[in-house]
Amino acid sequence: MKYGKRVFRDEEVEYLNTLPAVRHASPTRITYEDAFKLECLARDRKGESPTRVFREYGLAPEVLGPKRIERCMSRWRSDPSLQDALNKDGDMNPMLSNDNEDRRERLIREQAMHIVTLENEVRRLRAILKRERRVNE
């Protein structure tokens, strides 16, 4: 493994693969749906924070890492085929069809993301506690 490269745990991969914005996730890679890429680029053009858009789709930087979001946006901004598709489609929102359904789905994604974040925190705190117990023995 390269230094600094984020490796996703099995439950994180499973979670990522449930998201409509994700085509496929593995322990080291995420492939995003083209519609999600276009949504991010369209909202980026309007001045919205990419991190906010990712978070709305259940892709919080606490799980992905903020650098991954930055790299994705940089890659997508410089992709001529995505830029052409975005110019053709205008500012349509390809990911959303029903506003009420979207709110429910967003809430579910946010709650699932919060659970993953809390599980990560519990794991981190248990590791600290375990180290402290070893030191005190």
Structure described in brief:
By secondary structure, the chain is mostly helical. The protein is 66% helix and 5% strand. The protein has a two-stranded antiparallel sheet with strand order 1-2.
Description:
By secondary structure, the protein is mostly helical. It has one domain. Helix content is 66%, strand content 5%. A two-stranded antiparallel sheet has the order 1-2. β1 and β2 form a beta hairpin. α2 crosses α6. It is elongated. The mean pLDDT is 83.
Top keywords for this entry?
about 5% strand; 2 strands; about 140 residues; single chain; mainly alpha; two-stranded antiparallel sheet
- What's the total helix number? 7
Number of domains: 1
Rg is 17 Å
Contiguous low-pLDDT stretches (5 residues minimum) are: none
Report mean pLDDT, rounded to a whole number: 83
State the helicity in percent bands.
55-70%
Structural class: mainly alpha
Task: Record the SSE blueprint.
Layout: H1 10-16, E1 22-25, E2 30-32, H2 34-45, H3 50-56, H4 61-64, H5 66-77, H6 80-89, H7 99-136
Antiparallel strand pairs: 1-2
Helix pairs in contact: 2-6
